[in-house]
Amino acid sequence: MGYFRENVEKAKGYEPGFQPKQTDVIKLNTNENPYPPSPNVMKVLAEITPERLRRYPDPLGNEFRRAAAEVNNVEPDYIMCCNGGDELLSMAFRAFCDQNRPVAYPVPTYSLYPVLATLQNCEAIEIPFDDEFNLPPRLVGTGAALTIVCNPNAPTGSFVGVEEITSLADELDGVLLVDEAYVDFAEENCARLVRDFDNVIILRSMSKGYSLAGIRFGYAIAKPELIAGLMKVKDSYNVDAIAIAVATAAIKDQQYFKENVEKVKTERQELTEQLRALNFEVSSSFANFVLAKSSYPASEIYDKLIQRNIYVRYFDLLGLGDKLRITVGTRQQNEKLISALKEILSE
Ligand SMILES: *Cc1c(COP(=O)(O)O)cnc(C)c1O
């Protein structure tokens, strides 16, 4: 017998986007925000005292819960702090899924979901989106204990309307987790559903919209009963003192946040138009990346960009083999990408 549980033995593990060591590269492969976090974040960091480090953090991160509650128009007991949005996904699998309690989600989507399903030893019911990335009606009636809808979806950038998600929440027997890691770049969100539905969990991340991928902070919004259940599976001190302080400073600075998001949206539009001018097919994105389809082999473009120190993401997966996922960078980064693409396509 091997050392590992059978499903751990056969799991491949999540493959994160490449993190190059050099800093002089153009990194458009993991959907980080190209702009720095709020200046208030750096002030809070500078004020961290040894005493703060010596002591355990607040196990619930109540300072952040209050700030996030205010932004989302709920009470603090509707909020749970997580060590990145990814930790919430992991908690949800542990809380709701096992051999007899499957997970369901539309595909293509975030490639972490099947990895977590394998580790939890639960069946993953994958239901394809149609060509326009509408919510598949077959998501209702799967019998899944947990249904996940990534909205805006990765890596497509597509968005399903709040009304459709509301009907889905209404029709499902199990829990609906709406992964809103990218919702800061969309026009609306599903947070208000937690008022009416006792089976809805909203996932938020501080990594993208708030430029804090490095500190690992995300949160859940859900009815207090669901939050209380999820808390049973969390580590006792799942978010550290520095992360709580930093994330709180960031979410409180809504003015900076909104300006930052507007800049990304402006550049997203510009990048989309430039790519279309190079004959890429780019559908509208509601996230901080675009998915570009090319008639020139996408994997070759990917390799040739790396030779020029430009990193984007290529997925050798069903329906994605002819596409590149490109994070929206600064104007200057996007321009360098576009001129590199012009060179590559004319070779
Ligand atoms: C980035 C992301 C998350 C959460 O990321 P964290 O950095 O762990 O907060 C969750 N879902 C999707 C689809 C993402 O892209």
Structure description:
The protein has 347 residues and is of the alpha/beta class. It has two domains: 6-35 and 255-346, Aspartate Aminotransferase, domain 1, CATH 3.90.1150.10; 39-253, Aspartate Aminotransferase, domain 2, CATH 3.40.640.10. The protein contains 13 helices and twelve strands. It has helices at residues 6-10, 39-46, 50-54, 62-72, 85-96, 112-120, 162-171, 193-196, 224-231, 241-252, 254-277, 298-307, 331-345, and strands at 26-27, 79-82, 103-107, 124-128, 146-150, 175-179, 200-205, 218-222, 281-282, 289-293, 310-311, 323-327. The strands form three sheets. The chain has a seven-stranded mixed beta sheet with strand order 2-8-7-6-5-3-4, sandwiched between helices. It has a three-stranded antiparallel beta sheet with strand order 9-10-12. α2 (39-46) packs antiparallel against α10 and α11 (254-277) runs parallel beside α13. The radius of gyration is 20 Å and the shape is globular. It starts with 5 loop residues before the first helix and ends with a helix. The model has no long low-confidence stretch (mean pLDDT 96).
